[in-house]
């Protein structure tokens, strides 16, 4: 158990809908990272927050957004969902702002039908 | 931009045999290197990391990896595998000062009795 929690574990929704994925980092970790894992794209970095501020952006679509709250939990919002958004979404946390070891949550499996 | 190539998508080996999972990276600057393992239906767990110092890095579960700067490689090895090592293994790289991990496509290690 990494100490990173993600909810929900599974999510099934229809195209065009909007969903919110939630992540609670390890106690004391200030950095939160979001990744998408799909069969065709592999593991892709989406976005990073550190202590409430966005610090780095990767291959994140404009339909996707994230935020980190004062209690350090983070939410990833996915809107106007398409079939191709079906994937595993991982959250990771680390104590530093610059990359060090990251601790991954169990992931949220999103299925868009 | 950095990239990671895992040369084998699948590696089948017999139990108690040695294994090597190959990873090459491309970057114009100095990097940190990581190997993560993903067991079925779970998140990623850090196996080992190279940040600086000795080029031979030992990790958990008897794995080790060697950083070879001239070959831009970071191959993962284990002298004797166990059935419980069956998993997907990901090599990842991050440039100094960068905020994200770039992952390879993964290598599925299958252990046959």
Q: What sort of overall outline of chain A do the alpha carbons produce when their principal axes are compared?
A: globular
What is the alpha-carbon Rg of chain A in Å? Answer: 13 Å
SSE pattern of chain A? EEEEEEEEEEE
Assign a percent range to the helix content of chain A.
under 10%
Low-confidence parts of chain B: none
Envelope shape of chain B = globular
Compute the number of strand runs of chain A. Answer: 11
> What structural class do helix, strand and pairing data of chain B support?
mainly beta
- Biggest sheet architecture of chain B: 6 strands, mixed
Structure description:
The complex is a heterodimer of chains A (113) and B (113). Chain A has strands at residues 5-7, 10-13, 19-24, 31-38, 42-50, 53-57, 64-68, 74-78, 87-94, 103-104, 108-112. Chain A is mainly β and 113 residues long. In chain A, strands 2, 4, 5, 6, 9, 10 and 11 form a seven-stranded mixed beta sheet that branches. Chain A has a four-stranded antiparallel beta sheet with strand order 1-3-8-7, with no helix packed on it. Chain B has strands at residues 3-6, 10-14, 19-21, 23-26, 31-38, 44-50, 56-58, 64-68, 73-78, 87-95, 102-103, 107-112. In chain B, strand 5 (31-38) and strand 6 (44-50) form a beta hairpin. In chain B, the strands form three sheets. In chain B, strands 2, 5, 6, 10, 11 and 12 form a six-stranded mixed beta sheet that branches. Chain B has a four-stranded antiparallel beta sheet with strand order 3-9-8-7, with no helix packed on it. Chain B has a two-stranded antiparallel ribbon with strand order 1-4.
